[in-house]
Amino acid sequence: MTPVIVTGTDTGIGKTVFSAGLTAALGATYWKPVQSGLEDETDSQIVARLSGRPILPEAWRLKLPASPHLSAEAAGVEIDDTTLTLPDTSGPLVVEGAGGLLVPLNRRATYLDVIARWRAPVILCARTALGTINHSLLSLATLRTRDVPVIGIAFIGAAEPEVEQTICDFGQVAHLGRLGLLDPLTPETLREEFAAIDTDRIRKAMTA
Predict the structure, then answer these.
(1) In CA terms, which of 22, 101, 159, 203 is 20 to 30 Å from 89?
(2) Residue 43 and residue 54: Cα distance in Å, rounded?
(3) Is 32 in the active site?
(4) Average pLDDT of the chain?
(5) What is the pTM (predicted TM-score) of this model?
(6) Which residues face 5 on adjacent strands?
(7) What CA–CA distance (Å, rounded) separates 112 from 104?
(8) Over the stretch 129-151, which tens digit does the pLDDT of each residue have?
(9) What is residue 184's predicted lDDT score, i.e. its pLDDT?
(10) Which is the catalytic residue, given 15, 32, 63, 204?
(11) What pLDDT, on a 0 to 100 scale, did the predictor assign at position 40?
(12) pLDDT tens string 95-121
């Protein structure tokens, strides 16, 4: 089964929560290749707590909460993007990127360069808040410049049907569903909310 890559239009939009829901729904293993920021609960720890599924160790763990290239430089190291290869797992694999597509990993390569090399299908997570049309369409256009296969777009936030449909129409992309903002955020509430996500389409893309 082909791994699936979860990326976003920006940082802090909820793609880690989406990744946790997807990991649980698929019965998958989760991998966050690069973690910037270690003071709070890491993305891997959040996904482990919410999904109850196996977590692979990060390839890079960097203390400073910043763009990966800046976080690495602050630690006196450089991320070697050529060493980031998709791990073999016995079942489905969910891989979460850092920030948006054009976040630099070093002074030469962005996350998009790695995703394009992996050739795995991508899910784009986007806010439903103001500004999402521009951010979403730019991200979709950027993925297509590198011939990255896109399964669809998943929205996070309050329902904005007209905005969501506009993005899907202009971006010529499938609407995978929407996650509302969960309070409390627990494995149970996430599982219930994630029922609205089109996991059948995602599974088909991973087995195509």
Answers:
(1) 101
(2) 13
(3) yes
(4) 97
(5) 0.97
(6) 95, 122
(7) 9
(8) 999 999 999 999 999 999 999 99
(9) 97
(10) 32
(11) 84
(12) 999 889 999 999 999 999 999 999 999
Which pLDDT does position 75 carry in this prediction? 97
For residue 89, pLDDT over 90 is answered with yes
Long-range contacts of 172-178 (CB under 8 A, 24+ apart): 173/124, 173/140, 174/198, 174/201, 176/123, 176/151, 176/152, 176/201, 176/202, 178/128, 178/154
Q: What is the pLDDT of residues 151-200, one digit of tens each?
A: 999 999 999 999 999 999 999 999 999 999 999 999 999 999 999 999 99
d(CA 20, CA 156): 13
The answer to whether residues 62 and 71 touch, using CB atoms and an 8 Å cutoff, is yes
Question: What burial letters (b/e) apply to 11-25, b meaning 16+ CB within 10 Å?
Answer: eebbbbbbbbbbbbb
Give the whole-angstrom CA distance, residue 151 versus residue 3.
Answer: 12
Q: Name the percent of the chain in helix, strand, coil, to the closest 5.
A: 40, 20, 40
Locate all alpha helices (DSSP H) within the chain, ordered by sequence. 15-26, 43-51, 68-74, 111-118, 132-145, 161-171, 187-194, 199-207
How far is Cα 59 from Cα 78, in angstroms, rounded to an integer? 12
